[in-house]
Specification:
Protein name: RagB/SusD family nutrient uptake outer membrane protein
Keywords: Cell outer membrane, Membrane, Signal
Radius of gyration: 21 Å
Family: Belongs to the SusD family.
Distance between the termini: 27 Å
CATH architecture: Alpha Horseshoe
Number of domains: 1
Subcellular location: Cell outer membrane
Oligomer: single chain
Structural class: mainly alpha
Organism: Tenacibaculum todarodis
CATH topology: Serine Threonine Protein Phosphatase 5, Tetratricopeptide repeat
Number of helices: 15
Helix content: 25-40%
Shape: globular
Strand content: 5-15%
Length: 457
């Protein structure tokens, strides 16, 4: 199949081009039929939605790569090249000729979301159908947000730092086959609009208790996350507060925190990607890349371990330990063999810290209360004052190995700290360096002249 723009305009939902278990998209969706007219029942909608969630779980997206590339470029971890994986990512030396895994996979998710959004005349319960379509709108927002964090020029000097990514809102529309890049500001606006649409369609009474699909709470959590990234503190504050006031989640306790990473639907989980003993990424997943004997490419930098207080459980042997001569993440994604740990996309502790960061200026006392609620539940030393610096320190401690560190550094205009000149092979790029953004893959830029390549590539 010809590779053209990010698989949105030309992709057809065939089992030959989708990731594991995307047979959920069949049998009603085939190459020689009009997709929109074949989504005719609510059962078709559910099958399509399941296929989209399966694509999110791909190894190119939240199943592994999107998390790892945002850790290995920071002061948290490095690639030891045990199986020669994530070496160039660790050097921040990705070339346009490299595999376009994240780009294509995320746009595949968006493709399915758009197909579902465009479906008309579907028979079945209207509330259920709308709830499913709301999830599709939220997926579309999350996908574009994740793309602009990786490929947008907002943190790069020397080029056009307004360049975002194409925000695709149609499926198989010939008029949009060669779409240009939207600005970063447009991506933010469109994503927040999609999330508001999602909330208008969804009903809290229909939320999935398993937390393995996007709920109304997850929509608000994603909204808070996007708004914080772009510095829209009032929107971040209001969305985070809705999640907090729902009373649907709790901060994991010190004694129970470790178990949340091997427990499905834990009390602090807002949205997680499902895995099971029969449906998982196996050796190509997160557990094996962090500590597998034959993989195990991602090791922990001593500086991160030293960041934790002596009694902080997150720095103790349940979470960080020396294995095979390397400091390892042993607490998150812990289950080897069956590889069946669900993968958190967003959990309650993140929402609490988003809220704390968003209200520092207006209510520092309340911000401090929320900030300290995390270390208080980790046997860690609390903070004397709420500042963005302290929130970032706590975010580093709490979300190490979960793929947030690089974007926290970037969104706050910081250089990549060079804490280990030998193992950190990127050399500690200054904020604004061209490699703060990934290159647009040649497989895309080479066939779509409207997609401008990023500065420096």
């Amino acid at each position: 199949m010809k590779k053209i723009i990010y698989f949105i305009a030309t992709v057809v939902l065939l089992t030959s081009m989708v990731a594991c278990n995307d047979e959920d998209l069949n049998p009603t969706l085939t190459e020689d039929k009009d997709l929109e007219t074949n989504i005719s029942t609510y059962e078709d909608v559910v099958a399509l939605l399941n296929g989209a969630y399966n694509r999110i779980s791909s190894g190119s997206y939240y199943g592994r790569d999107y998390i790892i590339i945002n850790e290995v470029r920071t002061d948290n971890t490095y690639s030891n090249a045990n199986s020669n994986r994530f070496v160039e990512e660790g050097r921040m030396n990705i070339l346009p000729t490299a595999s376009n895994g994240a780009w294509s996979q995320i746009y595949r998710v968006i493709a399915v979301a758009n197909a579902l959004i465009q479906a008309e005349g579907v028979s079945g319960d209207a509330a259920l159908i709308n709830h499913a379509k709301g999830q599709a709108y939220a997926m579309r927002a999350l996908g574009h947000f994740d793309l602009v964090k990786l490929y947008g020029q907002q943190h790069v000097s020397g080029g056009d730092n307004t360049l975002g990514v194409p925000y695709v809102t149609t499926y198989r529309n010939p008029d949009n086959y060669f779409q240009s890049r939207n600005t970063v500001a447009e991506v933010k606006t469109l994503a927040l609009q999609d999330l508001d649409t999602a909330l208008s369609l969804m009903s809290a009474s229909l939320n999935d208790a398993s937390k393995q699909t996007i709920t109304t709470h997850a929509v608000n959590a994603i909204k808070a996350k996007i708004a914080l990234y772009f510095g829209d503190l009032p929107t971040a504050r209001d969305a985070a507060l809705k999640v907090i006031n729902s009373n649907a989640f709790t901060i994991a306790s010190a004694s129970g925190f470790a178990s949340t990473f091997s427990t499905d639907s834990a009390s602090n989980s807002i949205f997680e990607i499902a895995a099971s003993g029969t449906d998982n990424l196996g050796i190509n997943g997160l557990a094996n890349i962090y500590r597998g004997a034959s993989y195990g490419d991602i090791a922990v930098l001593q500086d991160l371990k030293d960041t934790y207080d002596s009694n902080d459980i997150r720095g103790g042997s349940q979470f960080i330990s020396t294995v095979g001569g390397f400091i390892r993440n042993v607490g998150k994604y812990p289950t080897m063999g069956t590889f069946d740990d669900n993968i958190s996309v967003i959990r309650y502790e993140e929402v609490v810290l988003i809220y704390a960061e968003s209200i520092i200026a207006e209510n520092p006392t309340l911000a401090l209360t929320h900030l300290n609620s995390i270390p208080q539940n980790r046997n860690a030393v609390t903070y004397p004052v709420a500042t963005q610096t302290n929130v970032l320190v706590e975010r580093r401690k709490e979300f190490a190995f979960e793929g947030m560190r690089f974007h926290d550094l970037a969104r706050t205009g910081k250089d990549i700290p060079l804490v280990d000149a030998i193992n950190q092979t990127h050399g500690g790029p200054a904020y604004g360096s061209f490699n703060f953004a990934y290159p647009i893959p040649n497989e895309e830029a080479g066939v779509n002249a409207n997609v401008v390549q990023n500065f420096g590539y």
